[in-house]
Amino acid sequence: MLHRDKVVSQVIDNHAHNLLLPSEYDNHPFASITTEASGDALEDTFFSLPHIRASNQLKELYDYHGPDEEWDCLKERRRWLDFAPVALIRKCLEGTYSILIDDGLGDPHTMHPYNYHDQFTVAPSKRILRIETVAERLMETIVRRVAEEVLVSARFIEDTFLLFTERFERAIHQAIDDTEVAGFKSVICYRSGLDIEADYERCFRTIGPPFERYIVRCVTEKRYRLDIKHVNDYLVLKTLEILTSRAGKGFSKPLQLHTGLGDRDIDLLRSNPAYLQAVIERYPQVPFVMLHSAYPYTRSAGYLASMFKNAFLDIGEVFPMLSRDGEVQVLRQALELVPYNKLLWSTDGHYFPETYWLANKQFREVLEEVLVEYTRENDMSESRAIDLATALMFNSSNDLYNLGYPPRRGEKAAPRALPLVGQRAPRSREATYIIRLWEHFMKLHPETRFVFVQWLDYMGQMRSRIYPAIEFNNMVNAGTRISIAQGNTGTLQNDTVNVAVNTTGQIYVEPDLGSLRPAWKAPMPAATVMSRWCDVNGGSIKECARCYLQSCLQELHLDHSTHILVGFEIECVFLKRNPENIADPYLPLTTTHAWGTMSAEQWTNLLPIVLEISEALAAIGINLQAMHSESHPAYEFILPPLPPIEAVDTLYQTRQVIATIAESHGLRVTLHPHPTPSSGSGAHTHISLNSTELDTVVLDKKELQFWAGVLAHLQAICAFALPEKESYDRIAEDRWSGGVWVAWGTQNREVPLRKAGDRRWEVRCLDGFANMYLVLGAIVAAGLLGLKKEMEMVVKDCPYNTARLDEAQRTEYGITNMLPRSIDEAMKALDDDSSLKEALAEDMAKNFLIMKKAEQEMLDKMSDEARRIWLIERY
C-alpha cells in the first residue's frame, strides 16, 4: 500500500514569505496562521474547523499535553518556546529543501532577510521579486522630496514617468540577470483585479492620465501604494514585455500571480483566474503561476493550466486555511484536469514558522489520502502515484524555476552529497561559497579584522590558519580554497611523522561559511569558521571525517527517511596552575565539590567563571541548555540538540570559548577523562532519530535496528570514542560511567547506551579525547549497517546495574560482550570488524589505527605523570 515514507521526503516550497523577528511576534495576531480574516472578523476564527484542527496539531509540535481547547494555554506554551526561536524554526522547516521567498510582504525592518532562512534548509533560498514593491519603492525614491508646486508643470509629469519607467525596466532586467531571483510576482489581484488589459500598445496609449493621478497622489499624500487599474496593468504588461524579450527560444523566468484566496481587500469576483486567459495566450514564452490554488476558482485555474503550455497551478495557502475536507476537494479538483507536472507545491508560509509546519503536515496527509484512493481504485499504479507526488513536491518547481537541483525519483532516489534538512546550505552551482553568508556576517560584525579558519585532525586537535578579513574576503569572492600538504592529514599532535603521512600531494581546506562565529575576546576582533577537506575541484576526499559523516547522514535520510539530532554534554575540569611543583603542576580549582553542589568555595571561585562562559557563548549565538557541577572535580555544560555537523562545529567552538575564558583567569580547563584520582569526566552524547515521513510504528522499528547495529559494533567504535589509554581508567563498574558491558537500558546509567527518553539515546562510552566527526561517523555507519541488515535488538532493555548481575542473568538480557578494557583491545576490535571498516570511508580506519599506534608508542615512552601533563596541556 502506498505510504508517505515511499514519497520524496523533501519539498521545494515555490512560494512563501519571510519570518518575523521574534521581537515582532506580539505585533501580529497568532490566530491569523489559519485565516486571512482580520480585525473583528478574526474573533470568529476560533470556531472554524481549520483553527480547531491546527490547534490540535500544534499540541504535537509544542509537545503540549494540556486541555484540548485551551488556545491561551497553547499560546503560553509557545511563549516558552520563544526563548529558543531557532530550534522552533528548525523543527517547523524540517523537510524543506529550498524556499522561494516573496520578500515584498510587510515592513522589511520587522522581518528576517530572505537568506536568513538558508540555515534551516538544504539549499539556499531564492527570491521572488514582487513587481509592485519594486515600483512603489522606486516612486518613493523619485518624488519623496518633491514639493507640490512642481505639479503644475506638465514637463515634470512627463519626466517623472520616463524616469520611473527607465528605472523600473532596469530593475526588471537586473533581476532577470540575478541568479538569486528565481521569478517575479504580481499582486494585481489585490489592487485592481485580474481583468488585465492584454494589449500592451493599447495600455501604453492610455496610461498618461492614470499615471498622472498616481504621481499627484504620491507627491501630495506621500502614499505610494499602486492601486490604480491602468497603472497596475501597465506594470504587469511592461514586465511581461521584458520577460518575453529576454526569453530566447524557451521560457523566461516565471511570473507568479495572486489568484483567489485573500483577505477582505480583494475583489472576490475579479480574483477569478479565468480573466487571465487573454494575457496568458498573448505571452506564450512567460510561465504564469496561478498562486494559492486559485480557491474558490480551482477548476477555472485548472482549465487554464491544462489548455496552455505556459500556465501552471500552485497548490498552496489552502493548507492550513481550509478544513481537511476542503483541502481534499481542492487537490481533487486540481487533479481533475491538470497534468500533474504542471502542479507546484507551496506553503505560503509567512511571519510565524508554524505556518510552514502546518501547511506541510496537512498537505502530506491530504496527498497521501488522495493518492491511496487512486491506487486502490486502480486509477494509477503505486509507482505513478509516487512520481506524481515527487513532481508536485519537488521536480516541477525545480524544472520551472531552473533551480538545477538533482531531480528526485521518489523511493528510488540515489544518495547524493547534499546536507540533511535543517543543516547549513550547500555550495551553489555557480560558486564555491555562498557569499551572502559572509556578507551577512560582516554586516552584523563589521569590526572583524581576522578570520581563524579551523579544521580538526584525526587526533582531535584543532588546526587553523589565520587570515586578515580582507584576504579572507578576497578568497571567498574568488572561490579559492586553502592548499595544504597531503601529509598534514597524518601527523600526530606534535607533528610526528608516521607511515600514514603521504609526503606528496595536496588537499584543500574549504571553510563552511555557515559556521562563522565571532571569536570571543580575541586580541583583535576576529571570527572562527569550521572547514572540510576536499580535492582541487571541491569534491569530498576519503580522509575527511566531516565529509564522511555528511555522506552517512545523507544515506540515512535518503534510504530511510530518517534524520538525527545530536546534543553534546561537555564535561571538563578546571585546574589551577601549581608552578612550584614541577611534578604536579595542575591542581583542581575546587575541593568541596560534588554532583549538583554549590558550596561557598564553588560560589566564590567557580561560579563567576561559569556564568561568564554562559554569557560569552550567548553573545556568539550559542545558547547553553544548562550547567552544573559534576562528580568532583568536573563541571558540565549542556548544549542544545542540533543537526550533527552543526552540533560538532558548535561543540568545538564552545570548547574554545571555555578554554579561552579559563586561561584569562589563569586556569587550565581540560577534557582529560581522568586528570585526578577521583571520578573522571566523559563526553556523553545524546542522539535522537526523527522523521517527518514515517509513522510511529515504522520509525520505532528502524530506531531499534539502528541501535542494534551500533551495539553490534560498539567494541570497534570504542577505538574512536575512547581513543587513549587514560580513557579506560574511567570506564569501570559502579561509577555511573556506563559500565563495562555492551548493553542498553531505559534510564540506566550503568550501561554504555542509555535510552533517555522518547527517541533520545545517550552514548556514554565517549570522552573528550575523541574526534567527534569520526565518532559520529562511526556510530551512524554502524546504525546504517543495522538498518540494512534489519537487525533485531537481541540485547534486551536492562533495568539493572550490570555489575550486580551474574552471568546467567546477563545472558538472559542478551548481555554477552564486554567493552574493550584498553586502547589496544579497542584498536584490535576495530581492526577485526571488517564490516564496519568496509562501511567507513576508504582507508579511514586503516590510517586512524596507524596514527593511533604511533601515538601510543610515543606516549608510552613517557612517565605516567609526564604523560598526564602532556595530555592535559593538549585536551
Automatic annotation (TrEMBL):
Segments forming a coiled coil: none
Regions that span the bilayer: 768-787
Entry keyword Transmembrane helix: yes
Keywords: Membrane, Transmembrane, Transmembrane helix
PROSITE patterns (alphabetical): GS_CATALYTIC
GO molecular function: glutamine synthetase activity; hydrolase activity
InterPro entries found in the cross-reference section: Amidohydro-rel (IPR006680), Gln_synth/guanido_kin_cat_dom (IPR014746), Gln_synth_cat_dom (IPR008146), Metal_Hydrolase (IPR032466)
The GS catalytic domain, residue ranges: 545-875
Designated name of the protein: GS catalytic domain-containing protein
Organism: Venturia effusa
